[in-house]
Predict the 3D structure of the following.
Amino acid sequence: MLRRNLIAGGVAAVGLGAWWATSRGTDLPADPLMTANAQTASGDAPQITDMVLGSANAPVEIIEYASFTCPHCASFHANTYPQLKADYIDTGKIRFVYREVYFDRFGLWASMIARCGGEMRFFGLADLIYERQRDWTASGDPAVIVEELRKLAKTAGLTDAMLDDCMNDAEMAQNLVGWYQANAERDDVRSTPSFLVNGEKYSNMSYADFKAVLDEKISG
């Protein structure tokens, strides 16, 4: 499991002059982390929409904290999440909230790509990004990674114009980083994936262990 200082070191560890540049040569502001730190320090967390599945009236809420560049998160979404969705989310037993963690700029880009399709497409894109994680991260080249992410998004019906708008939205990049930092600090998130089940924090676990926790919460 990845264990890092998510607040002080996660995004700051990028250590690059510019956060990201698309292969089309468009640079975003040099340090959205600066704005995010100011927002978090003031207690004025930016308003970002949570991505949610399941019934609003479900007796149990799960909040997952995960990074699109985390291999353990990809494993969870390949092996545990489908069972969780079929047995608990789709049946109205739990409300599932997904919140992004940013270890690096590539995870931020993936988040912006997934959110570009709006709430209706987010989870489908997220599944695809996790499924192809090894492929789109393989080169380590920022320009290649951006183009690989764009290709994935196009298979979900997003256009170049839509992706250009999303990937060049500097304010959104800043707000997402501030939102992530405020969430991680408030909920003491120190590794990914991490879960809050009705407010109680859990680390990554097998589906059998997850099921035991959920069944106890539901019956209790």
Confidence is low (pLDDT under 50) at residues 1-43.
